[in-house]
Amino acid sequence: MRPINYNKKSLKSEFTLPIAAVLLNLYAANAKADDYFAPDSIEIRGNMSRDIDLSQFSQVGSQAPGIYTVSIYLNGNYATERDITFTSESGKLTPEITAEDLLLWGVAKNATPALMQADMKSNIAGIEQLLPESHIDFDFPQRRLNITVPQQYVASNPQGDVPETEWDDGLNMLFLNYSYSGSTTHNSSASETASSDYINLRSGVNLGAWRLRSYSAYTRGHEGDRWEQISTFLHRDIKTLRSQFVMGEGQTQSDVFDSFAFRGLQLYSDDNMLPESQRGFAPIVRGIARSNAQVTIRQNGNTIWQSYVPPGPFVIDDLYPTSTSGELEIIIRESDGTERRSVQPFSAVPVMLREGHFKYALAAGKYRSSDIASREPSFIQGSGIYGLPWSATVYGGGIFSNDYSSVALGIGKGLGDLGSVSLDGTFSRSQFAYDTKTGGSFRFQYSKDLVTSGTTFTVLGYRYSTSGYRDFNEANGDYYDQMPADYQTKDEQQAYRNWRETQTKRSRTQANINQSLGDYGSLYLSAFEQRYWGGDKERTINTGYSTSYNGINYSLNYGYSQASRFNNSDQTLSLSVQVPLSKFLPDTWLSMTGSSNKRGDTTMMTGLSGTALADNNLSWSAQQGYNSQHAGSMGNVTMNYKGQTGEYRAGYNYSRQSQQFTYGAQGGMVLHPYGLTFTQPLGETTALVRAEDAAGLKLFNNTGVYTNSQGYAVVPYVSPYQRTRLTLDSSSLGEGVDLLSDTRTIVPTNGALVLADFPTASGQKVMFTLQGTTIPFGATASVQNNQRTATGIVDEQKRVWLTGVPDQGTVQVTWQGGQCSAPYRLTGSSSSVPGVTLVCH
Length: 841
Fold this sequence. Notes:
Blueprint: H1 8-13, H2 16-27, E1 66-74, E2 77-89, E3 92-95, H3 99-104, H4 113-117, H5 127-130, E4 135-139, E5 144-148, E6 173-187, E7 192-207, E8 210-221, E9 224-238, E10 243-251, E11 261-269, E12 285-289, E13 293-299, E14 302-309, E15 312-316, E16 325-333, E17 339-347, E18 358-367, E19 378-388, E20 392-401, E21 404-414, E22 420-431, E23 436-450, E24 455-465, H6 472-476, H7 490-502, E25 505-516, E26 522-532, E27 537-549, E28 552-563, E29 568-580, E30 588-597, E31 602-612, E32 618-627, E33 632-643, E34 646-654, E35 658-672, E36 675-679, E37 686-690, E38 698-699, E39 712-715, E40 724-729, E41 737-739, E42 743-746, E43 753-757, E44 760-762, E45 764-771, E46 780-785, E47 788-793, E48 799-805, E49 808-815, E50 818-825, E51 835-839
Parallel strand pairs: 1-5, 37-43, 45-51
Antiparallel strand pairs: 1-2, 2-3, 4-5, 6-7, 6-35, 7-8, 8-9, 9-10, 10-11, 11-18, 12-15, 13-14, 13-16, 16-17, 18-19, 19-20, 20-21, 21-22, 22-23, 23-24, 24-25, 25-26, 26-27, 27-28, 28-29, 29-30, 30-31, 31-32, 32-33, 33-34, 34-35, 35-36, 37-39, 38-40, 40-42, 41-44, 45-48, 46-47, 46-49, 49-50
């Protein structure tokens, strides 16, 4: 260890600034852990040096022992975040961790015999005793615990793997989510006023891992009032199967067969429960290393994977799915510095899985439809998808009921530079009262990314069905035997059968293409056509070009739609320009839009839009324009506010013939073990922020989310089975409370309300002056506040600054070779910082 040299002349002249400089250097983020200074080397006038206790600061990295919230990294990779108890050993903070902790953070179970024989629950004496050549460093300023072990001791877990032990089923709770929209319209020409209202409700209960959900809706308009109970179901995850179990009303999975509504039981694979690097399709990379080699994989010039492999064959099967196709550059750097490079092209259609992965879906129950003329047979359905070697995937399944059966089989194949394709066939047999229909449906899909030209064929697909083919919806929907009795005459039955024959699907073609033009913008094309055996067809085409020049956005779009069953078609061409006005009005844009359809109906609009308030949670727009069909002006004003307890919107539209007011609100309320919290609209998986008594704290990266007067807030959207870091903005902290940690990491299961508990210390901020005994500079002073301890360092004037101090208690002061205590009682307002003089005995 090397001493730190200081200028003694400056130390002689003043005391406070040099000592502060020493302490600042000790806390600096770039200080080296082994740097050391001798307190005796500080030269101070008189005999003051005898009253200095800097023993806990004599080594860089030496801070007060206690409980700290730290981020834990294993070999530079983030593992988790949690509270760790630190003790002082040899002048350094040492974490109290167990062998079980090391396994949770990514060390292999069989890394060494010593680790395998260790008591999993007991604190380890030193990591090097279990894992040779390993060490732990605590970066105090960053609150980061760095654990470094030889790479061979690290478990071969997939990238992004979150241990099941971290999954949190959350709190028991009840919730209600609502969405309301309404309008009042006055028609000038008819002197009529009409109003409409729509309310959508989603409610639920969580008990452990079980989730009960209910969806309902209410509509009021010119057709009267209508209340609908859409669905009710109970579900939970099955962790060992990486699956979801559902009981009640729902939709079947659509990986192999078209989805349909049913009432019954369902068990299916949930990709969200897999590590992110194991979801979807990504190629497997194989190679041979001649030594302990570094393997790097790049895509489009970006490094997407890098690690070390031992000599011999290796397999890399945990790449993140970055695109549907492309090229991987594999670089093997041997220990002697030599490099070998190769290129591996890949591609995938949506159905493809990684080699060795299996995905399934099972369902049993009754078909469900809101149509009056639908039958509801019992059925069972099963499907499976399996990833084979050589970038191939096979899939298939079956649906069986008394009057219907269907079997599907298909294969997907990556063709390297040529893209990827899938081919499948589905065969059905449908029994009707008047006939039996059999047939087949055959589908082809193609996907390809042309990296050099920037072209993406997301899906090019074609399906052909014979006249006798029926999917399960077609076989049971609009079934004439289920129609009311007065529709059951012989002629009506025959007419209905004839109509049904014409509405059977014959072919379906779809395409989605995107073309990047670099600095010149981008093009897109989306097209769909559905043909029926009766000759009808539906067709939709949307294409457009967008670009930006000098900060101004331009967009040209064309749309075509045709629905021959309704004898109508339309074409629309639109041009829009958006100009930022940030130089004159912050967060404001000027927009100009023009559109015209084939009937000659032309609309021109000019408007302003923008956002306001500190959190940009108020958005607004105002437009004025002209419509040729109404031969007059038209315009609208809208405003949307996203607040702590919901989202609210209001608008006004007018034309020559009518005036309309629109309004709406959406939000939620959650009843949990700590009380009732009103929230923004809720997603399926949420988090409850608890920062007790810390009101008005903003949650970063969540617009409009603040803690309420009790210190609670609900984060409305959280990704399940993934680590999510939640951070509070402590700069908005009020008087009388301290936030002891501003960051928490959670891993919720699907549908959970997970507690993110931010520890706080309620109390005052006090400057204590201690008298009555010789207390050295650098002594530690502390006050107990419930389960938390407020700690500070005594300065050269025997003062100590403490936060989170209760109104009554005892200041405990300790130093090397001595201690004293001073009871106190605070009086007066907490809005100002009190100074209190105590006698320490």
